[in-house]
Amino acid sequence: MGRGDGSERLVSPDGADDAGTGILHVDMDAFYASVEQLDDPSLRGKAIIVGGVDGRSVVSSASYEARRFGVRSAMPVSQALRLCPHAIVVPPHFDRYLAVSSTVMRIFRDITPLVEPLSIDEAFLDVRGVRRLWGSPGAIARDLRARVRAETGITCSVGVAATKHVAKMASTMSKPDGLLIVAAADTDAFLQPRSVRALWGVGPKAAEALEARGIRTIADAIDTPRDVLNRALGPAMGERVWHLVRGIDARSVDTQRLEKSVGHEETFSEDISDALVLRAELRRLADRVGARLRAGGWEAATIAIKVRFADFSTITRSQTLAESTAVSQRIGDAAHELFDSLDTRMPIRLIGVRAEKLVPAGSGPLALWDEDEEWRRIEDALDDATAKFGRGAVTRATLLGKSRSGGSLPTSPPPPRLDQG
């Protein structure tokens, strides 16, 4: 697996063998950073960090110019600036990223209906059924990359393989702006020299558990008995790894894949003790969560909050609702109830709201009357205004003029999934 800065990039030559393949993994390159560089040409070729301008925020994305200095997603911005002092910090523009993502996903679905989005900037495509229309998987991947660049102005990397797992590994290794094809017959040769850390789904702790037993490469894992893998990783993960290192992955492209949760959180530039300010921020975050649920056609059965105190201790609390909802007012009410139940004598550094146990909107039983009818009407109007004029054009009166020592309430919480590409 590469270091994430493109220094170990591996790509296929023109005409590479794609026999036995049919699964594509497409991943946009440093997506948020690339969109910022597209929209502001003065940033092109420069080290940029997408994140809050205060040092307590985390990096949502970084250009490859910044990654070469060791900057990574989820790293505190203050640490990133120590590694790359000349980097330019750019505040995120999530609505813009969603718009570009919509264009990219439309391109994917123009090629095949079998598309499984993994996040805002990556997806699996099964192209086995469209070969007569568009050609071999390798040809489809080349045409797709060219079309994404032409229609969006930014680049993507593509892995082509016989399975989802190998395609995902291949796209990562080809970054940035690359294409790596692994023919079915070459799967074992491709996998065996790789680090166990390259396995999709094997995190740092699992990798450390394997390496502590001398299992450093995929070839080492193949030579390891199943019971040893099970003891190192637990039965479920051990069984999964035993199959993946052998190139066995029966998972199909799932066009009905559901988001597990939707959330937003905010790290404050200074610790906050004022309960009124914190409750206002919960309401703001709940409004954003509700808007995302409605845009995606989901409702949530459970609402959770996350609170991180000044000493970095972190707690979460959740509440299952009587009925699933995408109404921001209802989400905010639940968040307030959860917050009011906490002991908040210590100042708070971070606060977040998350909607969980998502179900398709309208799939629940019909009630005799809709207690939220008025709120639905208001929020539909807010959604229309946001679509026409942008976020913040219309907001709650209770969120106007809120202030605290050192600045105003933050308005750009981190996205639900950090951009890794």
Task: Tell me what you see in this structure.
- The chain is an alpha+beta fold and 421 residues long.
- It folds into three domains: 1-185, Reverse transcriptase/Diguanylate cyclase domain (Alpha-Beta Plaits), CATH 3.30.70; 192-244, Orthogonal Bundle (DNA polymerase, domain 1); 261-408, DNA polymerase, Y-family, little finger domain (Dna Ligase, domain 1).
- It is built from 15 helices and 14 strands.
- The strands form four sheets. It has a five-stranded mixed sheet. Strands 9-12-10-11 form a four-stranded antiparallel sheet.
- Strand 2 (48-51) and strand 3 (59-62) form a beta hairpin.
- Helix 4 (94-111) packs antiparallel against helix 6.
- The longest helix is centred in the C-terminal third of the chain and has 22 residues, at 275-296.
- Mean pLDDT is 86; it is low at 402-418.
Question: Helix and strand layout, with pairings?
Answer:
Elements: E1 23-28, H1 31-39, E2 48-51, E3 59-62, H2 64-67, H3 77-83, E4 88-90, H4 94-111, E5 115-119, E6 122-126, H5 131-134, H6 137-152, E7 156-161, H7 164-173, E8 179-181, H8 187-191, H9 204-211, H10 218-222, H11 226-233, H12 235-244, E9 261-272, H13 275-296, E10 298-309, E11 314-325, H14 328-340, E12 348-360, H15 373-389, E13 403-404, E14 407-408
Parallel strand pairs: 2-4, 7-8
Antiparallel strand pairs: 1-6, 1-7, 2-3, 5-6, 9-12, 10-11, 10-12, 13-14
